[in-house]
Amino acid sequence: DPRAFDPLMAIMEDSKNDPDLRGHAAYGLTHLGDPRAIAPLIEALGYSYAIRQDSVEGALQGFGPAAVEPLLAALKSPNGKFRGEVTRVLLKILPEKDPRAVNALLMQVQTPSGGSDTWLIAEHYKFFLKRGAPGSEPALINALNLSGNVAMAQDYLACGNPKLRIAARDWAKVHGYKVESFSGYQSSIRWG
């Protein structure tokens, strides 16, 4: 019923409401299919603890390709945490089907390391490895060095990119691990 739009928006936007209730309202907006809900839902990604983020993410995913353009615009925000939430949603909307989303996400690893969101790259490194964008190695290496872990280093070792293999070996050495052989580790993540 389209008459539910305004009441659901009022519930979602009222910060006095319980975060779960606000999340349910956000999810309910998806079922209405009214694109007017997209911008407020994207804004709600920045509310953090005031609303159930998984509900907001699910609601935006429900809009699919219609949400991509507004999400891409939101990637320009100066707020790194907000950009992280936007990236998470874009990755869940299957960006492989939308070249605009793929290109915007790849730009995050093709910027100089000083301007990139290192933690964001580390969190989503598997996406970036699978894409194998030329020139993304420095940002991926920086993410490994600043925010990496053993699983990430193993994926770098086995992905097939020589630069990332060397970086993973260096990371392992600095962190007290010894790489005897990586041929036994089977990663489903291949470079490009």
Structure explained in plain terms:
This protein has 192 residues and is mostly helical. It is built from twelve helices and no strands. The N and C termini lie far apart (45 Å). The mean pLDDT is 84.
Q: How are the secondary structure elements laid out?
A:
Layout: H1 5-13, H2 19-32, H3 38-44, H4 53-63, H5 68-74, H6 80-92, H7 99-110, H8 118-123, H9 125-131, H10 137-147, H11 150-158, H12 162-174
Helix pairs in contact: 1-2, 2-4, 3-4, 4-6, 5-6, 10-12, 11-12
Secondary-structure element sequence? Answer: HHHHHHHHHHHH
Mean pLDDT: 84
Computed CA radius of gyration, to the nearest angstrom = 19 Å
Strand content: under 5%
List keywords for this structure.
192 residues, mainly alpha, 0% strand
In short:
The chain contains 12 helices and no strands. The chain has helices at 5-13, 19-32, 38-44, 53-63, 68-74, 80-92, 99-110, 118-123, 125-131, 137-147, 150-158, 162-174. The model has no long low-confidence stretch (mean pLDDT 84).
